[in-house]
Protein: RNA-binding protein KhpA
Organism: Paenibacillus sambharensis
Amino acid sequence: MKELILVIARALVDHPEDVRVDIREDDRGTVYSLSVHPEDVGKVIGKQGRIAKALRTVVTSAAVKDRRRIIVDIVS
């Protein structure tokens, strides 16, 4: 899952070397925190959050076969 998030995020940004994904477990499930270069935050979120929503949809769909709850947080 982490690799999937990294591949998608690196394709969207101007500074792919600054893309990081941190993983933690909490009561909601597995939380993936995506952090990017400050100039690239808007590119990952998109207009009205459309790109962020699409990223979360792809990751959630991939997690269905593992029967896990996945949450993607974008850290600005």
User: Anything to note?
Assistant: The mean pLDDT is 93. DSSP finds three helices and three strands in the chain.
